[in-house]
TrEMBL record:
SUPFAM superfamilies documented for this protein: Nucleotide cyclase
Alphabetized PANTHER family for the sequence: ADENYLATE CYCLASE, TERMINAL-DIFFERENTIATION SPECIFIC-RELATED (PTHR43081), BLL7624 PROTEIN (PTHR43081:SF18)
Protein name: Class 3 adenylate cyclase
CDD domains the record matches: CHD
GO biological process, one term: intracellular signal transduction
Keywords recorded for this protein, A-Z: Membrane, Transmembrane, Transmembrane helix
The keyword Nuclease belongs to this UniProt entry's keyword annotation: no
Domain Guanylate cyclase: 244-379
Organism in which the protein naturally occurs: Marinobacter nauticus
Record-annotated membrane-spanning stretches: 40-56, 62-80, 101-126, 138-159, 166-186
Stored InterPro entries: A/G_cyclase, Adenylyl/Guanylyl_Cyclase_3/4, MASE2, Nucleotide_cyclase
Keyword Zinc: no
Length: 479
């Protein structure tokens, strides 16, 4: 006469955005009581009520035919919903439950609204409606049941005595209680399974977040973000884009590698890469790769602020790297590394091919093209501490960054000699108002970036400079 909660369901968690975080796909079987078994239980309970009522002369003998119908209908309903065209019908479970409500209402009308058997059937129907479809299903089910009940009562009338004998009432109560308890048990099992599924999904989500963060260490943050937010597909594809390409290496690193132990050299190199990577990310650069002591960075993909801004950010990054290298060199000197390490850099701007290269099972997100070769060549030609840029880059930054003409060079892949320029500094930092000062001599080194000095640090620096000046004056007086 009614159905139980649901057939086997699955709970699937799925998200395609790494940061938030996280990619996972997990299916958990939820084992509620199937419709078939629930309908058999409900109609068997109703058949027991009918038989008891007929034996006690509460119901007319004619209702015995409904016993056969109650025992056959669950199997027939199962066949109709699983073996025929009805299986393709949307919300077939709810529709079959509506039919159960009509049958139940008709039965209540046929028994003449005898109180306890009628209430028992109503409870089973309403319980099923609330579990299967919520309040909406309950409202529609109640309306259909009431309509069927009213129509049947209008045709057959009510019973002379609405009170049922004790045995019939007991059987009706036991049958209804059994149905509700069994259905509630399976609902409880379903709730436990849902809780377990939620816990498993949460655990897998946390594992996926941790894994995605580990994988992000092997990719530039911009590339990782575009992949894990679904903006970029992981497949072999490339495109032509105008990018600013940066190369750098350390002058003197080869000599240093012959003097230092491999472990100490590795620690120094990792420290250098870590510091320079933070500078690159600060300006929005996409870190392509580390090769030996070289760094390759490009601007303009996967995100771009326009060709001019990309080129300016790239050169700004290079200037800050040069300044930062001087500070790091002083720190290394205090650690006993006397080899003067200098960074040299080359920057080119132009059209390159950018995207995923390689095989389907092993890809590398990188760029190729003659502008990449030009940037690499400029880096190899640069003097220690020098930043060389191509004419295209110079034309995009010249209004904000002072550059010096360095003539022309011949580069493979370019039909004509390529004009190159040396980056001097930001125009705003030129002259007496510049923020960065440096003085380096034997026994003395000073690097001052006044824009980064706080008020408290300024007092300490002034005190240290005054002490140093007093010391130098005392030595002059002694001499």
């Amino acid at each position: 006469m009614m159905s139980a909660p649901a057939e086997l369901r699955s709970v699937t968690g799925n998200t395609g955005k790494l940061g938030q975080g996280d990619i996972y796909d997990h299916t958990v079987a939820i084992p509620p009581m199937p419709d078939y078994n629930g309908r058999i239980l409900a109609y068997t309970a109703t058949a027991a009520i009918i038989v008891t009522g007929v034996l006690q002369d509460v119901f007319p003998q004619l209702l015995l035919w409904m016993v056969a119908g109650a025992l056959i209908w669950p199997h027939l309903a199962h066949v109709l919903t699983r073996r025929t065209f009805l299986r393709r019908s949307a919300r077939i479970r709810q529709k079959m439950l509506f039919l159960d409500c009509i049958i139940g209402g008709s039965f209540i009308g046929l028994i003449g609204l005898i109180a306890i058997p009628s209430v028992s059937v109503v409870l089973m129907l309403m319980f099923s409606c609330l579990i299967v479809g919520g309040v909406r299903q309950w409202l529609f089910g109640t309306a259909l049941m009431s309509a069927a009940m009213a129509a049947t009562v209008a045709a057959t009338g009510t019973a002379a005595d609405l009170e049922a004998p004790l045995l019939t009432s007991i059987v009706a109560i036991l049958a209804t209680g059994t149905y509700i308890c069994v259905t509630a048990y399976y609902s409880h099992q379903q709730a436990r399974a849902l809780l377990l599924a939620k816990t498993q999904i949460q655990n897998q989500r946390e594992q996926s977040i941790a894994l995605s963060h580990k994988l992000s260490k092997y990719l530039s943050p911009q590339v990782w973000q575009s992949i894990f937010t679904g903006e970029r597909d992981v497949r072999l594809e490339t495109q032509r884009k105008k990018l600013a390409v940066f190369f750098s290496d350390i002058k003197g690193f080869t000599e240093l590698s012959e003097e230092m132990e491999p472990e100490a050299l590795t620690e120094l190199l990792n420290h250098y890469f870590n510091e320079m990577s933070e500078v690159a990310l600060k300006y929005g650069g996409t870190i392509d790769k580390f090769v030996g002591d070289s760094i390759m960075v490009f601007f303009g993909d996967p995100t771009s602020r326009g060709q001019k801004e990309d080129a300016f950010s790239c050169v700004s990054m290079a200037i800050e790297m040069r300044k930062h290298m001087k500070i790091m060199r002083q720190k290394w000197r205090s650690q006993g590394i006397k080899t003067p390490l200098e960074i040299r850099m080359g920057i080119s701007t132009g059209y390159t091919t950018v995207g995923n290269f390689g095989a389907e099972n092993r890809m590398d997100y990188t760029i190729i093209g003659k502008e990449v070769n030009l940037a690499s060549r400029l880096e190899s030609l640069a003097e220690p501490g020098e930043i060389l840029v191509s004419y295209e880059t110079f034309s995009l930054i010249k209004d904000r960054i002072m550059c010096r003409d360095k003539g022309e060079i011949t580069v493979k892949g370019f039909g004509k000699p390529v004009p190159i320029y040396e980056v001097v500094d930001f125009r705003r930092d030129m002259g007496p108002h510049r923020s960065f000062l440096e003085h380096e001599h034997s026994g003395f080194a000073m690097y001052l970036d006044s824009d980064k000095v706080t008020e408290r640090e300024r007092k300490a620096i002034l005190s240290a400079l005054e002490d140093a000046a007093d010391r130098l004056r005392q030595e002059d007086d002694t001499e």
